[in-house]
Design goal:
Shape: globular
Structural class: alpha/beta
Order of helices and strands: HEEEEEEHEHEHEHHEHEEEH
Largest sheet: 8 strands, mixed
Strand content: 15-25%
Radius of gyration: 18 Å
Strand order of the largest sheet: 1-4-7-5-8-9-10-11
Helix content: 25-40%
């Protein structure tokens, strides 16, 4: 066995061992955490898979079982929680395992929720963490057997807003990276997402926690993702339930319409029932992942 073959064999053994675990934890920052300031804040477990006061952001990596040496699609998953907490289980770890079944390498992003006590410029910290996540994944694409041209972003509720923000604000290089690694996702998956920060349709809790109780018009516009769509915005798959009482369905509609205006490939699925926060399963245990799989195949975003 030559050195290259031995390296591939060792890599596959490691990846298969990781896939059997509850994810592999990877620090988002090597060294000082971007925009953090000293504080007495500590991460808090709220129970039922929910966490808040995140100080040390990280990626939790899930690799498909029985990985071969071919390159794979990857997706970064942003759990929701109104920018106050993260629902790490049903909008994170469970989703990552479902992605693995499609042959996709999944990374759950444990991003920092806005908090003036432990960070500077809180409105930009979640986006900075998302930019660092996609930069890190592409930077390690060869090591992790990832196709750097098939790296997507996925988000639920406020995590959907973060995913849409990365999809529309990727030119805002918050870290001043000086390399050629793109911060633009190749596709986005937005599940009951917060999109607009206009008072008439926004989820007020997410808006106020991110940009404050009395934001400027500039900040409201910047973080109203439908207003930031361009011809270079990545394709998007949107999914929401018609009886969502938390985030108005029109959020998904205005983003969908903006994508259509710019001729960006997109699908919007509005289910009759499901409410908000249903994660993988709609009523009667209907799993929508297969619908997503078909969309990814149509758009040639599945590597296998």
């Amino acid at each position: 066995m030559n050195i290259k073959a031995l390296y591939i064999f060792i890599f596959l053994v490691i990846m298969n061992n990781i896939s059997a675990q509850e994810g592999h934890h990877i620090k988002l920052y090597d060294g000082a955490v971007f925009k953090s300031i000293p504080s007495n804040i500590k991460e808090e477990d709220l129970g039922n898979g929910r966490v808040t006061h995140i100080i040390e952001p990280e990626l939790i990596a899930y690799f498909p079982q029985n990985m071969d040496s071919s390159i794979h699609t990857a997706v970064i998953i942003c759990p929701g929680g109104g920018y106050a907490r993260l629902a790490m289980n049903h909008e994170g770890h469970d989703v990552a395992k479902a992605m693995n079944k499609l042959g996709i390498i999944a990374f759950v992003l444990k991003y920092r929720v806005p908090n003036d006590t432990c960070m500077k410029d809180k409105a930009f910290v979640p986006l900075a963490d998302a930019q660092q996540a996609i930069h890190l994944v592409r930077q390690n694409a060869v090591k992790w057997n990832i196709n750097p041209n098939k790296v997507g972003i996925m988000g639920f509720s406020a995590g959907g807003h973060l995913a849409a923000s990365l999809s529309t604000l990727f030119k805002y290089n918050l870290h001043s990276y000086n390399d050629s690694i793109s911060l633009r996702p190749d596709f986005s998956v937005l599940v009951y997402p917060v999109i607009s920060f206009r008072d008439s349709i926004s989820h007020s809790g997410s808006k106020h926690r991110l940009i404050g109780e009395h934001p400027t018009e500039e900040m409201t516009t910047l973080f109203s993702c439908n207003e930031q769509v361009t011809n270079n915005t990545p394709p998007a798959f949107l999914l929401v339930a018609n009886d969502d009482k938390t985030v108005p369905v029109i959020n998904s509609k205005v983003y969908y319409d903006a994508l259509l205006t710019h001729k960006i490939p997109t699908e919007l699925h509005i289910y009759q029932n499901g409410g908000h926060g249903f994660g993988l399963f709609l009523p009667d245990h209907y799993e929508w992942i297969n619908t997503l799989k078909h969309w990814l195949q149509v758009n040639k975003m599945l590597s296998k």
